[in-house]
Amino acid sequence: MITAQQLYKSFKTRTGTVKAVDGIDFTAEDGRITGLLGPNGAGKTTTLRMLYTLMKPDRGQIRVDGVDAVQDPAAVRRALGVLPDARGIYKRLTARENIAYFGELHGMSKASIAERTRELSARLDMDDILDRPAEGFSQGQRTKTAIARALVHDPKNVILDEPTNGLDVMTTRAMRDFLLHLRSEGRCVILSSHVMQEVAALCDRIVIIAGGRVVAAGSPGELREKFARDSLEDAFVRAIGSEEGLPA
Ligand SMILES: Nc1ncnc2c1ncn2[C@@H]1O[C@H](COP(=O)(O)OP(=O)(O)OP(=O)(O)O)[C@@H](O)[C@H]1O
After folding, report:
1. What is the position in ligand 1's atom list of the atom closest to the CA of 48?
2. Ligand 1: nearest atom to the Cα of 212
3. Exposed/middle/buried for 201, CB within 10 Å: 0-12, 13-18, 19+?
């Protein structure tokens, strides 16, 4: 389980201070997919970066399975699988080597790395690319490799920044099935997206973020009710006050 309490993060830029995250609270439960939904620049990536200990919040608290992310970032990282916004796979290594490298960093034995790679490759349908160097991989192939690598140590909590960004329809569907599978294993899954349909199709709980704040949160059904409209699309537009994030 992941909880964020009163998170704040600002950046100083040449033209002034940007309040990227301005008091965000939410809880992501185990066995649930929680979606952070918001337009470009809403503060999703900054929030996720704080959750996975890449950045320290200016204020506020993050707990992963009860462990404070600022006080014990190493323990938190062990409990997390992360698909960062920059996928960052090593091009000179094959997909299998990319996965194994992370497994070794987590102190796994060769045998358990091999076994876990076999499982994840079957789930992600990537047997055909496992032994190819990542140089030249398509976006979908890079994403699959990065996800397999993130999950090699079997983390209880999974954080994915825009997991279906740039994927075609078939690969997006396969990715959704994969995320539902992670949920069925009882993991806590958090993903970000700026596409309303994406989170509506997948998430048990949606946290709508705009301007660094949570403007609404609930299940897709609760959000529809809250905004007393028929579609989640309308609820989203009302919550963020614009039509960003909807297909043209
Ligand atoms: N390192 C940084 N330095 C300065 N400003 C930053 C930095 N990181 C983020 N920001 C600013 O903080 C705000 C929130 O950015 P963030 O990347 O968290 O948004 P996002 O919701 O993930 O957007 P997108 O959907 O476009 O990825 C933006 O105004 C962004 O320009």
Report:
1. 18
2. 14
3. middle
